[in-house]
Write a structure and sequence with these properties.
Rossmann fold, six-stranded parallel sheet, 17 helices
């Protein structure tokens, strides 16, 4: 990729604008893990980043700048292009189609006896929301390619499934890649969607030269899905469709370990850690999640309650600290899920006073402080593309903490050897896994914790970025 500009395309960008209490415009890090993960790209190549103007202040900045501005990212400068979509179209695109519909498909969350119900409102949201916003993205990418035809395009995630086909049709020789940060379900999961929609999604992805996912499990599902939905052929490990071949690669993402080392010793984290030490139980079980149904928080609370019911020796000695970042509270399913978490927490605490300390806020320094202090880290996701919590925690933990990890989290493919594995639906099994983790002898705890931290430090975000650039370079030759 030396000398080739990279056009990164995602829903959220690396920066989000707001006004502080004095009315002064401030720029903060963009929401979600993608912006953090991709910061290292800026130091390796020239980057233009195309993203949605999400906040009102984002839209104001986009209007003032004509959409394009310079922004510092990872110690380098990137050109940021903010797209101010029609608000009604964006709402349909994001809050009706992308979330929850596509997200629920990817994470196998639909209760198919009742939901979803794809009525005229869905058809409108697809046509006037998802399609329209993808068209806007594609037009912006094509304009960038017209200015620099040699640039490579790097799409991200489930928000932009249609854009690659639109770009490919307009610029047949463009170098296109798409990375999916979500799990890919088996092909039957896609029958939730109407045939034209599911075919458009797969056709859009196969307009890319490379499609990347986090694990071999997800790549196998994707290949089978493309064959079943589109009738694509598999040739020499690649998918062939409409006269083009698409490589499919398993590239598990990771974290910036140096950043976490620095954060762990920052004043904000040290202050939060001191507060945790003053109030923590003898044994601390930690979970750090968004309030998303895919994270399986309710079952985790049930499992912790069962642990205390079945193993009275942990009553008063072990506590679950649940640090939850409120997520997508404009979407009814997410509001309902947070309420269910609060109800189950109250039920457990009614039986075992103070057993679960539930905190719903966006406080990343406190989360890093808790990472340092846990004895057990619970990651019991229903399904997850990867789950970076499973990598962040072990890198900064100071207590030889044990990772209890869902077999359906993408991270399990890499880290399962050193974790206590759980089935995310088996709450009794999770309770016993927590007991095993809490009871594990010191030598075994140290062995597992050391191996986890060493693996993540070797397989860090830099290695993931290098793999992405190598995949693009192989196509561009």
């Amino acid at each position: 990729m030396t000398g080739r500009r990279l056009i990164v395309v995602s829903n959220r960008g690396p920066v989000s604008y707001a006004r502080d209490e004095h009315g002064v415009r401030v720029a903060g890090r963009g929401g979600g893990g993608l912006a953090t993960a991709l910061r290292g790209l800026a130091g390796r190549c020239e980057v233009t980043w195309i993203a949605s103007a999400i906040s009102e202040e984002d839209r104001a900045v986009a209007a003032e700048s004509g959409g394009a501005l310079e922004h510092e990212l990872g110690g380098a400068r990137v050109r940021l292009l903010l797209l101010a979509h029609d608000p009604a179209a964006y709402d349909r695109y994001y809050n009706v189609v992308a979330n929850p519909l596509l997200w629920f498909v990817h994470h196998s969350l639909w209760e198919l006896g009742r939901t979803p119900v794809l009525d005229a409102a869905f058809a409108e949201a697809w046509r006037d929301g998802y399609v329209r916003v993808n068209e806007s993205y594609a037009a912006a990418v094509v304009a960038e390619l017209d200015n620099d035809p040699d640039a490579a395009v790097f799409f991200h995630d489930y928000h932009l499934y249609l854009a690659p086909r639109l770009v490919r049709d307009a610029r047949p020789d463009a170098v296109l890649a798409h990375f999916l940060h979500v799990p890919w379900p088996q092909s039957d999961g896609w029958t939730v969607l109407p045939l034209d929609a599911r075919r458009a999604i797969h056709d859009g992805l196969l307009a890319n030269d490379v499609v990347g996912l986090h694990t071999n499990r997800w790549t196998r599902n994707f290949v089978a899905s493309a064959v079943d939905v589109l009738g694509a052929d598999v040739e020499d490990g690649r998918l062939r469709h409409r006269g083009r071949r698409t490589a499919v690669a398993a590239r598990p993402i990771s974290i910036d370990c140096a950043e976490f080392d620095e954060l762990a010793e920052s004043p904000a984290v040290l202050a939060a850690e001191a507060a945790i030490e003053r109030t923590r139980a003898e044994r601390l079980v930690l979970r750090v999640d968004r309030t998303d149904p895919s994270k399986n928080i309710v079952r985790g609370c049930i499992a912790f309650g069962l642990l205390l019911d079945r193993h009275p020796e942990w009553r008063g000695r072990a506590q679950l600290l649940a640090l939850l970042d409120p997520s997508r509270q404009d979407i009814p399913e997410y509001v309902d899920y947070l309420a269910a978490v609060e109800r189950e927490t109250a039920a457990v605490n009614a039986r075992h006073a103070g057993a679960i300390d539930l905190r719903v806020s966006d406080d990343f320094p406190f989360s890093v402080a808790a990472y340092k202090q846990y004895d057990v880290l619970l990651v019991n996701a229903v399904f997850d593309g990867l789950n970076l919590v499973a990598k962040e925690g072990p890198v900064v933990n100071r207590r030889d903490g044990v990772l209890v990890l869902s077999e359906n989290a993408g991270a399990h493919e890499e880290l399962g050897e050193w974790a206590v594995t759980v089935n995310p639906f088996d709450v009794l099994g999770q309770a016993e896994a927590l007991h095993a983790a809490l009871s594990m002898d010191g030598a075994e705890r140290a062995r597992r914790a050391g191996a986890l931290a060493s693996f993540v430090r070797v397989h860090d975000i830099g290695r993931w970025i290098d793999a992405q650039l190598a995949d693009l370079a192989a196509v561009a030759r």
